């Protein structure tokens, strides 16, 4: 059983996040809301990168969602520079995770994104 299948079978959502989770650290010290913002930025980036590979959303739609997510993170006390850095880190991990997955894992990941409304398919 693949890593993604095992994690899905355990009831864990967002297999892409699980592929990337090992590197998601909350380097933000201090305010707990800023730490949440860092986690949110990483997750948003990983989903964005994966959604690009899976297709279905226009670049404009993905950029619009990113702006909204960044606005929420800024309201949580995260700096724009920190958001951008965590988003980029997540984006690279999410995109790479889908690009390098086996065809079956890629299909499963893209189907999961679709069921979550992350692709327009």
Written description of the protein model:
This protein has 121 residues and is mainly alpha-helical. Helices cover 71% and strands 0% of the residues. The chain is built from 6 helices and no strands. α3 packs antiparallel against α4 and α3 packs across α6. The N terminus is likely disordered.
- CA-based shape: elongated
Note the run of SSEs as H and E: HHHHHH
The low-pLDDT segments are 1-29
The averaged pLDDT comes out at: 75
What gyration radius follows from the Cα positions, in whole Å? 14 Å
Helix content: over 70%
Per DSSP E runs of 2 or more residues, the count of β-strands stands at 0
Number of helices: 6
What share of the residues does DSSP label as strand, in percent? Answer: under 5%
Distance between the termini: 27 Å
Q: Which class do the helix and strand fractions yield?
A: mainly alpha
Describe the sheet with the most strands.
none
List the main descriptive attributes of the protein structure presented here.
disordered N terminus, 6 helices, mainly alpha, single chain, elongated, 121 residues
Give the gist of this structure.
The protein has 121 residues and is mainly α. The protein contains six helices and no strands.
How is the secondary structure organized here?
Elements: H1 3-9, H2 15-20, H3 32-54, H4 59-75, H5 80-99, H6 103-115
Helix pairs in contact: 3-4, 3-5, 3-6
